[in-house]
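cron nightly-structures :: item 1 of 1
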Amino acid sequence: MSLNVDPIMLEFPEQFETERLIVRATRPGDGAELNAAIRESQQELAPFMPFARILPEPEATEKLMRQKRLEFLGRTDLMMLMTDRETGRILGASGLHRFDWEARRFEIGYWVRTSCAGRGLVTEAVHGLTRFAADELGANRVEIRCDDRNVRSAAVAVRAGFALEGVLRSWRREEDGTLVNDKVFAKIRGVDF
């Protein structure tokens, strides 16, 4: 892929499939179902995901889905939803975020609804997103970053074969003033994929 192509001109699929999932871009109409998933999972999400600390109304989540759709089309953020391949039910959110088109560096984010946790779905989605980033976006580096207290998120990165590169100490401050550390995991083209 040429480095001097404006990202808005890049053509790539809006979804991909894995064994059990369809991971796809957000669409108008996704808000109510995603909101239900957030509500179901608030207790598990809130310690690490600021968006879940104060439950949004379904209308606010729908507005977010429409905004994320525009960002996907503008190539400024690639939020995607993990959906059940058989039923289409929204199981959680993922995608590629905080990227650098020049370096072709992308960060994978993810969460899964509580009723679907522990089934390997997030690891499956991460494998798919890594392939998508490499094959469709020409990724040179794919990262996973997580709060070092988020043991489950770090375990996904390890299961998906990401190398722990380090811990950013006192990386950010929580709303209550606590300084927290972030773990940085990565895969590099030519080494890991």
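cron nightly-structures :: done
The chain is about 30% helix and 30% strand.
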